[in-house]
Amino acid sequence: MKPIPPDSVGLVTPARLRFAEPLALASGGVLADYEIVYETYGTLNAEASNAVLVCHALSGSHHVAGYHSADDKRPGWWEHHVGPGKSLDTTKFFVVACNNLGSCFGSTGPASINPASGRAYGPEFPMVTVGDWVASQARLADRLGIRRWAAVVGGSLGGMQALQWAIDYPERVAHAVIIAAAPKLTAQNIAFNEVARQAILTDPDFYEGRFYDHATEPRRGLRIARMLGHITYLSDDIMREKFGRGLRGGKLNFDYQVAFEVESYLRHQADSFVGRFDANTYLLMTKALDYFDPAGAADGDLAKALAPVKADTLVVAFTSDWRFAPARSREIVKALHDNDLNVSYAEIKASHGHDAFLMRIPRYVDIFTAYMDRVFAGLSS
Known about the structure:
The chain folds into two domains: 15-184 and 294-380, 3-Layer(aba) Sandwich (Rossmann fold); 189-233 and 262-287, Orthogonal Bundle (Rna Polymerase Sigma Factor, Chain: A), CATH 1.10.1740.110. By secondary structure, the chain is α/β, with parallel strands linked by helices. The chain has ten helices and 14 strands. Helix 3 packs antiparallel against helix 4 (219-233). An eight-stranded mixed beta sheet has the order 1-4-8-5-11-12-13-14, sandwiched between helices. The longest helix is centred in the last third of the chain and has 19 residues, at 362-380. Belongs to the AB hydrolase superfamily. MetX family. Its EC number is 2.3.1.46. Residues 50-336 form the AB hydrolase-1 domain. One of its GO terms (cellular component) is cytoplasm. Keywords: Acyltransferase, Amino-acid biosynthesis, Cytoplasm, Methionine biosynthesis, Transferase.
């Protein structure tokens, strides 16, 4: 392993908390007993006022920054933005990142053992929503002694959680940072998710979600789902820039093996996804995305849905993000303005598509850092 950079949080160890208090879910289901895995970086101050929650996106986890061991090849998924001197400066903030319920990275999910049956939950794991995640995160905050977050931050599905936090717990969120998100999915987005789900559900190795019992997994379906997802995460510009019509072997091969570089890329992404991500989790997470619609409970009026919000907000969008286009972010901004709330909006010119929120883009970093500096300054004012 290369030496750990000085601006990294370094070696980190996940923690785990068990919750015996039943969690009632929006679906009508109940999780009687569950665990949440999380990581923290930095130090909680004496007033417990400097805590920042980072919410993860669809295939993310609690491992946001740093390394789990000296042999780790990669740091956490948001290493660009979390660490000493970075946007989420761990010399100032106590950063918390938890793994959502239903995930396959440690928190209770479909692959966990159902205490009622003694076997993996599989398809019996209840459907979870963004609101359910936020409720479980509030319990985690209680256990960590955090009554109010200095900020709740997230990109994509994580940004939806940040918005839901501001709605559901207005007294507990000072700032919400909503990056590359939308107030709800379009029909086109739901359609992409449905194609991905159908790829998994119709895989002969899916066994109606009981593939754990057969010592297999729906590899084919999960691979297709991941390839489809990757296409939507990137922009046409970045795909042209990265791959163009480049040929893997320098010539057409007139068969169905990999010919173009972009085909090779998608297959690699798909192969690396299988074995580390759970198919049932993919189904759950995409459904949570589809169901997210805070305005739905307010007759479709987003401004009305955001009326309880008290947090100041930063909304960030990226010009080439066609999955959650800037116009969708501006819907959030308008609804916040309609409630006379303090909201800052930044539209970042970037060619990376939806994945831009994971990148170290100078203007994005500057704006994010400046906003978090304001958050920190407000702690001591």
